[in-house]
UniProtKB/TrEMBL annotation:
Protein name: Type II secretion system protein I
Processing and modification events after translation: Cleaved by prepilin peptidase.
Membrane-topology annotation of the record: Single-pass membrane protein
Residue intervals of the Type II secretion system protein GspI C-terminal domain: 44-118
Subcellular location: Cell inner membrane
Job of this protein: Component of the type II secretion system required for the energy-dependent secretion of extracellular factors such as proteases and toxins from the periplasm. Part of the pseudopilus tip complex that is critical for the recognition and binding of secretion substrates.
PANTHER family, alphabetized: TYPE II SECRETION SYSTEM PROTEIN I-RELATED (PTHR38779:SF2)
Keywords: Cell inner membrane, Cell membrane, Membrane, Methylation, Transmembrane, Transmembrane helix
Organism lineage string: Bacteria, Pseudomonadati, Pseudomonadota, Gammaproteobacteria, Enterobacterales
């Protein structure tokens, strides 16, 4: 009499490797998505703080009832634990129309503004 052969159960090495490839691909896609989300959120926080700095400059000019200068005026403000550099100026937008402009830069990154607001004069707005 022969012994009945026991049926093997479990996964082969090839099946385990295929499962690992599928899992690692999904994990990499998830990590990429999370990384993009964190980068976007950080950029959004910078833009929000820069907008507050710009709005502070506009509010300060309105409170003092003073016009923006023709030549660029620069300054800095600390907000959110960071120093922000700002530049205000009255600019000619063409066709004898003028606007007040506020540009806000992150400290150490003065080549590109984080935010630029341009506010046309109400009586000159189209």
């Amino acid at each position: 009499m022969t012994k009945p052969t026991a049926k093997m159960q479990g996964m082969t090495l090839l099946e385990v490797m295929v499962a690992l490839v599928i899992f690692s691909t999904a994990a990499l896609a998830l990590m990429n998505s999370v990384s993009l989300n964190v980068r976007f959120t950080h950029g959004l926080a910078d833009t929000l703080q820069a907008s507050w700095v710009a709005e502070n400059q506009i509010a300060q000019a309105k409170l003092e009832n003073s016009a923006f200068p023709e030549a660029p005026q620069r300054g800095s403000e600390t907000m959110g634990g960071r120093t922000w550099l700002w530049r205000v100026q009255r600019i000619d937008t063409g066709k004898r129309r003028f606007a007040d402009e506020v540009q806000v830069f992150a400290e150490g990154e003065e080549s590109q503004p984080v935010l630029a607001l341009r506010i046309p004069d109400p009586e000159e707005a189209p």
